Amino acid sequence: MEQRTFELRFDSIGGLGAHAAGQILATAAVLRMGMNGSHFSSYGSEKKGSRIRSFIRLGSAEVPIRTSAPVERPDAIVVFHAALLRDPTTLAGLRRSGTFIYDAPPGPAPAELAALPRAARVIRVDARGIASAERSRPNAVLLGTLCGAFPFLRERDVLDALTEEFASRRPEAVASNTRAFERGRTEHEVMEDVGHAEGDVPAAASEPAWGYLTQPVGGVVPLPGNTAWNDLSASRTGSIPVLDREKCAHCGVCDLVCPDLCFVWGAGPAGGRFERELMGIDYRYCKGCLRCVESCPTGALAKTAETAGLADRLRVPLFPGIVG
User: Fold this and answer.
1) What residue ranges do the domains of the chain occupy?
2) If you count DSSP H runs as helices and E runs as strands, how many of each does the chain have, helices first?
3) What is 142-201 written as a DSSP string?
């Protein structure tokens, strides 16, 4: 902090509060701790489920901040949704002695985290579980965890900035946010022997490295959209619909209201009551809107907390030939 800026990146999806968390942290650092600081976010369409990155630079009063470029070599990365761990760019650029904080319930570390530096500090916190229990949001929990990991981020100042953000607009949220923040500060877990890489994680270029020899032919879309490969799992914010086939009447109402056509149908048994039966759900295409649960006339679809690996265990592939 005395020689250079301290740089953070929040990797998240829309709806979990990463942008607000970045604003709160930078505001607390500048207005309450006497630091220099900057913050901005990068995102596409402003909607729940879309990818968002929030960048924060902090420095002592003697360290000027002269750039507004994205943070490509962060000292700390905070991941607001475990589904983002499947994207290698989520880990990109972390310094060899950096800190990696991610939201997940207790359990084995995801295999993807082996790409982290061996010397990096890895911290896990069940942010969505705590937020749900305290009627708060994951950003309050993760701000608490960040303060617990870095004592120079004075928790009282950050909590005061969090409180100020909601005191006028949603005063009823102040107490729940405070409880979530404190639990995030104390209930996180430092993981051991997670990363196996040496040195910094290579940074991901913010723009494709195209020049006159490597750029694609004009008029061509090099990465076309494809609904068969689309993965909406990162849009979910903690709950999935779970099917009880014993209760299912195979009426198809769930399929009528589903915006993403993630239900899998198959032929019923010969001589059976139904010609077509609902076989299950392909959670790759389920964004967790739960319209099917609200519309199911028999109660066969139930809202269930998404624990690690649950969707993979229950998933019935809509396109069995596609790997992933």
Assistant:
1) 6-191, 233-314
2) 8, 11
3) HHHHHHHH-TTS-HHHHHHHHHHHHHTT-TTHHHHHHHHHHHHHHS-EEESS---B-SPP
Options 3.30.1780.10, 1.10.150.530, 3.40.50.300, 3.30.70.3270; CATH for 233-314 is 3.30.70.3270
- 115, 91 contact by CB (below 8 A): yes
96-136 per-position pLDDT tens digit: 999 999 999 888 899 999 999 999 999 999 998 999 899 99
- Structure tokens, 114: 């082996």
State the DSSP code for 30: I
Instruction: Specify the CATH architecture of the domain 6-191.
Output: 3-Layer(aba) Sandwich (3.40)
Q: What predicted TM-score, i.e. pTM, was given to this entire model?
A: 0.80
Pick the closest to residue 157 from 30, 54, 37, 39 (CA basis): 30
Task: Confirm if 210 and 130 have CB atoms less than 8 A apart.
Answer: no
**Banded pLDDT at 248 (limits 50, 70, 90):** very high
